[in-house]
Specification:
Largest sheet: 6 strands, antiparallel
Shape: globular
Order of helices and strands: HHHHHHHHHHHHHHHHHHEEEEEEEEEEHH
Number of strands: 10
Radius of gyration: 27 Å
Structural class: alpha+beta
Strand content: 5-15%
Oligomer: single chain
């Protein structure tokens, strides 16, 4: 089995190299044969990678400890479903997952454009193949998952307890689909430069691929926050951890691109900027993998450390240098067709939006990498904690929130005074009223007040846009819920974007509620003693020891009352996994749309008391709901094929 796995990866490496060379020869000579052969090589790499993945999953499920990877990440007492998810628990397995998704993107791309006889798409496939060369070479020659042990152990080391969570079975693959998928926009950008491609048709295509990847990456980040919330036991869901930041940065730059690309489509501006954003998004996705896998930074999300960091840094250096050289070489191709007519215009607001997104990314990058830089310069690793990120990023994020409501309703080229009055008077009034109403409820400080104003302002602006659309169609269809649905179907791109913006508002409100109004209480409790937090009263009924699956659990049983009304019992616990070295926190949650009651068992003290820590997190459900709304809005946007169909007709 080991030899078959190694051979499979070696053949995948050869096919990747062949794909690059064959397509390059075809592009150079104009012959169709090498181009077809190169495309088939991409399919073969996908099939070989799938075979290698199936082989690895098979030995993981069988617990074949003769394989080093299996011995390091599974054990006999590990439940079968976690044995499958241990595929991405370690360095080699997660790289194989990377390659599987990468090759699947290559195959999916070729399937989508199988009827297009255009060398441009072959150039895109060539760039994808070139990236596959890097990952197949790593797996074939540097860190193969099919290495065997001379003396297999009787049992394995087990899976990291933090990964033994249902969320971890879907969070990494979804995050990777977003991360890895940015290869397609990158390949489009490089192909445009290599082929000296003119026109904007490729921009619409790359926008859709980017939107798809952006949705998965954003949803993956949301799932990661949810995992941190229920698994790490510190009461929050975002801690500006280096690996969290690494996933956020390409998402931010991708968001900037999705806005600026509209300016290029509409006005023929920002061509160089857009290609640069595509390149930066891809490089940051590779950088995120480097941070997760190299071990250069300490993170609760970093589950695999190895010496492959220099390989990733080398790849980032080479690929970014080639991309920069191509951008400079093709600068005439990327010259803007128009100039900015007025700052107060839609393109002006999108441009400002881009500057802020890049500033947000730069600040996050600076804070994330500062420990590495400080260690290199001074010899001491100086960590940058959450207060730095909050101080720098929160005001930028709030301005972006306001732009979420301003940008889409401004006119292209120049916004007149009448447009500003028509679009902004009512949202401003709504924002002011919401702020005045919120102050008596405890909203204090400039940032919370701006957040309340901005959320109300954006919501009003979006609702007005929907109302105007329905009113404009009243002769076709009277106002009704069905009319709203038909309006969205009529222009999915526009109204899908508004739905995404409503999701953003929900997240801002959720973050505001769960951070500003969070309550915390903790105390050691003897059996029968109570702890009061807000309207809740928690009474310890006892502490039991019990075995669950592959862990011994110390569980507190807590009786909960709210305003005298009895609620379901809660069971916060500490679990000591048989293969683990430290006890893991098992959070008890009582969730309602308005707030979460979040209870943690800190431990059992020498006097027999249980250390109970509890939080009330108001409106945290809006964070998860906002993410879901953003995904729905993105799906609506992806359903808009009208523009592509119009362009197809023009071509035919």
């Amino acid at each position: 089995m080991s030899e078959i796995g190694k051979l499979t990866l070696f053949l995948a490496f050869l096919c990747s190299c062949y794909g690059v060379v064959s397509i390059a020869v075809g592009l150079r000579s104009g012959m169709a044969g090498p181009l077809r052969s190169g495309r088939r090589a991409v399919w073969v790499v996908c099939a070989l990678t799938l075979l290698a993945t199936v082989l690895l999953v098979r030995v993981l499920v069988k617990r074949d400890f003769s394989f080093r990877y299996v011995a390091e990440h599974t054990s006999l007492d590990l439940p079968a479903h976690y044995a499958v998810s241990s595929l991405w628990a370690g360095q080699e397995g997660s790289l194989l997952l990377w390659l599987l998704i990468l090759s699947a993107y290559g195959a999916a791309f070729l399937w989508c454009y199988r009827k297009r006889v255009d060398p441009f798409y072959d150039a895109v496939a060539m760039v994808v193949s070139a990236v596959m060369v890097f990952f197949t070479s790593l797996l074939a020659f540097v860190c193969s998952p099919f290495r065997v042990l001379a003396t297999p152990p009787a049992d394995g080391n087990g899976l990291n307890p933090l990964l033994q969570d249902p969320g971890m079975m879907i969070h990494p693959p979804i995050l990777y689909i977003g991360y890895v998928g940015f290869i397609i926009p990158f390949a489009f950008g490089m192909a445009v430069l290599l082929m000296n491609r003119t026109g904007t048709r490729w921009i619409e295509e790359v926008r859709r691929w980017t939107l798809f990847n952006w949705m998965f990456l954003g949803f993956g980040i949301l799932l990661g926050g949810r995992w941190a919330y229920v698994e790490l036991g510190w009461g929050g869901y975002w801690g500006w951890d280096p690996v969290e930041n690494a996933s956020l940065m390409p998402w931010l730059v991708g968001t900037a691109f999705l806005h600026s690309v509209m300016i290029e489509q509409r006005r023929g501006m920002l061509k160089t900027w857009n290609v640069a954003l595509i390149v930066l998004t891809f490089e940051l996705s590779i950088f995120g993998t480097f941070l997760t896998r190299s071990g250069v930074l300490t993170s609760v999300h970093s589950f695999a450390e190895s010496n492959i960091g220099p390989w990733f840094l080398g790849f980032i250096l080479i690929s970014s240098t080639i991309a920069t050289a191509l951008i400079l070489y093709r600068k005439a191709l990327l010259e803007s067709e128009n100039r900015l007519d007025a700052v107060v215009s839609r393109e002006g607001s999108f441009l400002f939006n881009n500057v802020l997104f890049v500033a947000l990314t730069f600040a996050t990058f600076l804070g994330t990498t500062f420990p590495v830089v400080s260690e290199a310069v001074t010899g001491a690793k100086i960590s940058v904690s959450a207060p730095f990120f909050n101080r720098v990023n929160v005001p930028i994020a709030l301005v972006l929130l306001l732009l979420t409501g301003i940008g889409p309703v401004l006119s292209w080229k120049r916004a007149t005074a009448s447009v500003l009055q028509r679009n902004f008077v009512i949202p401003t009034i709504v924002g002011v009223l919401a702020t005045l109403v919120s102050i008596p409820f405890g909203v204090q400080g400039i940032y919370p007040i701006v957040c309340v104003f901005g959320s109300a302002f954006v919501t009003a602006a979006v609702v007005m846009e929907f109302a105007r659309g329905i009113k404009a169609r009243k002769d076709v269809e009277p106002p009704s819920p069905a009319a709203l649905l038909h309006l969205v179907q009529k222009n999915k791109r526009r109204y899908g974007g508004y739905i995404v913006h409503l999701g953003v508002v929900l997240i801002f409100v959720g973050v505001l509620g769960s951070s500003v109004f969070q309550k915390e209480e903790h105390a050691p409790l003897q059996k029968g003693q109570s702890l009061a937090i807000g309207p809740y009263n928690l009474t310890l009924l006892g502490v039991q020891e019990r075995q669950v699956a592959n862990a011994m659990q110390t569980r507190a049983e807590i009786h909960v009352e709210r305003d005298g009304k009895r609620l379901p019992l809660m069971y916060p616990a500490k679990a000591m996994y048989f293969k683990g070295e430290q006890p893991m926190t098992e959070v008890a949650l009582l969730q309602t749309p308005a707030e979460d009651l979040y209870v943690i068992l800190g431990g059992v003290n020498e006097d027999g008391s249980a250390s109970i820590q509890s939080y009330i997190n108001p409106l945290v459900s809006l964070v998860w709901l906002g993410g879901v709304v953003m995904v729905l809005g993105t799906i609506v946007c992806l359903g808009d094929r009208m523009r592509l169909k119009r362009e197809e007709k023009l071509l035919t």
